[in-house]
Write a structure and sequence with these properties.
80 residues, mainly alpha, 3 helices, 0% strand, elongated
Length: 80
């Protein structure tokens, strides 16, 4: 039960951070690269929710790590 709760919390935090980053990316000048990264990030969030519902903890944490790196990549592209 605690593991599911922490998974849900991780998804919520990632969703919130990605919404902020995507909103900022839409105002960015390089919309093609940031738009693609934003779409990939949304795909990671869908995969996280699916892995959490199916109880695949190993896959969940692997996808979470990849999503976090995608978010960092998106933010670093926006800062350039």
């Amino acid at each position: 039960m605690a593991r599911t709760s922490s998974m849900q919390q991780a998804i919520r935090v990632l969703e919130h951070a990605s919404r902020i980053a995507i909103r900022a990316a839409s105002n960015s000048t390089s919309t093609t690269t940031t738009g693609r990264l934003a779409q990939e990030l949304e795909g990671y969030i869908r995969r996280l929710k699916r892995a959490q519902q199916n109880g695949r903890t190993e896959e969940f944490y692997k996808v979470l790590q990849n999503a976090q790196m995608k978010l960092v990549n998106l933010v670093s592209k926006m800062l350039r």
